[in-house]
Write a structure and sequence with these properties.
Layout lengths: L2 E6 L5 E5 L4 H10 L6 E5 L5 H12 L3 E5 L4 E5 L7 E2 L1 H4 L8 H9 L1 E5 L12 H9 L3 E5 L2 E5 L7 E3 L5 H11 L5 E5 L5 H13 L2 E3 L5 E5 L10 E3 L4 H13 L3 E5 L7 H10 L2 E6 L2 E5 L8 E3 L11 H8 L5 E5 L10 H6 L3 E5 L2 E5 L8 E3 L3 H13 L3 E5 L2 H4 L5 H7 L3 E6 L5 E3 L11
Parallel strand pairs: 2-15, 3-14, 6-7, 10-11, 18-19, 22-23
Antiparallel strand pairs: 1-23, 1-24, 3-5, 4-5, 7-9, 8-9, 11-13, 12-13, 15-17, 16-17, 19-21, 20-21, 24-25
Helix pairs in contact: 1-2, 1-7, 4-6, 5-6, 6-7, 8-10, 8-12, 10-12
């Protein structure tokens, strides 16, 4: 059943929206639960296709899982793992599931994990993951699209990452928890999701210091030192940034709740320079508004704490109607301007040259038939459609469902004219997606 989103733009968004749990954090916490024998419970879990895929991955390994939709929680019992193989069918759908490699190597000293898939935003090699695990004493071979990893024992060591890879940092952390001695990751990724993973592991009994800095030290512990826990996931900073852009794009005003504002400091600074008014209401809430035409801005995406690559496309949507010429440089992924052709359909004036985009602001965008090429590009088209004149139809919305929970419901509550419908019978599915099942993947 092919589903699409229809948006009638030009409506000012107003009201309050609550941010869901962080997709990029909870997926890694689910993998981390494989390290411990017993039943762990994770709260603030968003209902997303990526979460469903990860559940299937860890169930394939023998763990028992239960997702409580009402409570927004997942229970994982990894007492008995019956397999160390994560299949291509599942891992190829979502890159984040590759993190089970580190968890399996740490717990079982063996893993067979398919090379990852996910959004087609550019080449994302796993070299750093493999080198890190090899440095710990793992023997790795790549055959027929699978990573085969075996280790008699894991010995802590110093590991330097050429780039601060989030996935490599996570895989090395997970494998190092049960290694002998200390592992030091230098030039480690510093994202909030890394801190959340370290906090989760420490609560289980791991000994990790320095998460959130460029050097993380993992002092290995024994299996019997780990215990199952209950833990609440951090809010999704990328979802929060998307709603911030939507309020600003529509010249609206609203409060965004369940947010950690310090996770978005650089992004907020750029939006303020463009002319948005962003105020801290309380430690976990901000008010966002914009009454005037935005000003052009220069942006270069960088690893955290720099400007997030996941929010580059949202900034571009805003820049399309800003006064002047914005220069946006994507320094992390070579194919992350895939929203550009779609924005041009709406009347945007964008000149792209390799990883640079010159965006000359126009008076307004107009509705068009659009296609989401990946998760964040799809979300940026929603933002653009909300501020455009007329009707927009967005296809390939399964990409958007990977990272945004109840997107139509949330925007509908803010006053947007938005609906999801089925192309097959042209009937409305709902104002927001329901519980996701394997049949919808």
């Amino acid at each position: 059943m092919v589903q699409k989103i229809r948006i009638i733009g030009g409506k000012q968004l107003k009201g309050e929206v609550s941010i869901s749990g962080a997709k990029n954090a909870v997926l890694k916490l689910m993998a981390a639960a494989l390290l411990v024998k017993g039943e762990s419970k994770i709260y603030n879990v968003p209902e997303l296709t990526d979460v469903i895929i990860m559940l299937n991955v860890i169930e394939q390994l023998g763990a028992k899982t239960y997702y409580d939709k009402k409570e927004k929680s997942i229970t994982i019992d990894a007492t008995n793992l019956t397999s160390v193989t994560a299949s291509y069918e599942l891992v190829s759908r979502m890159r984040a599931s590759f993190v089970v490699l580190g968890a399996l190597v740490g717990r079982c000293r063996e893993a067979v994990v398919a090379l990852p898939g996910g959004c087609a935003i550019g080449e994302r090699k796993v070299d750093f993951h493999i080198r890190g695990l090899e440095a710990l004493g793992t023997n790795i071979k790549i055959e027929n699209g699978y990573v085969h990893a075996k280790a008699k024992k894991l010995i802590g060591t110093d590991i330097y990452l050429d780039i601060p890879s989030v996935g490599a940092t996570e895989n090395i952390m997970l494998a190092s928890v049960l290694a002998e001695g200390a592992t030091r990751i230098q030039n480690a990724a510093q994202e909030p999701e890394i801190i959340d993973l370290a906090n989760f592991l420490n609560a289980m009994g791991a000994d990790i210091i320095g998460a959130g800095t460029s050097e993380i030290v993992i002092n290995g512990v024994k299996q019997e030192n780990l215990r199952p826990i209950e833990y609440t996931t951090i809010p999704d900073r990328i979802e929060a940034g998307t709603y911030m852009a939507a309020f600003i794009a529509t010249k609206g005003k609203g409060i965004i709740k369940n947010i950690f504002p310090n996770h978005l400091t650089f992004y907020t600074s750029k939006l303020t320079k463009m002319g948005a008014d962003i105020k801290l209401i309380d430690p976990t809430s901000i008010e966002v508004s914009c009454k005037k035409r935005l000003e052009a801005i220069n942006i270069i995406t960088q690893p955290y704490p720099g400007f997030p690559t996941d929010l580059q496309s949202m900034a571009m949507s805003l820049a399309t109607v800003a006064d002047g010429v914005s220069i946006i440089t994507e320094s992390l992924y070579e194919n992350r301007f895939m929203q550009v052709p779609e924005l041009r359909k709406m009347g945007a004036d964008i000149h792209q040259e390799r990883n640079h985009a010159l965006v000359k602001g126009v008076k307004n965008l107009t509705g068009a038939n659009l296609r989401a090429s990946d998760l964040r590009a799809g979300a940026s088209l929603v933002v653009a459609a909300l501020m455009a004149e007329g009707e927009s139809i967005i296809d390939n919305i399964f990409h958007i469902d990977r990272g945004y929970e109840l997107l139509e419901n949330k925007f509908k509550m803010l006053g947007a004219d938005i609906i999801r419908y089925s192309e097959d019978d042209n009937s409305i599915i709902s104002q927001g997606k329901g519980n996701l099942s394997e049949s919808q993947l």
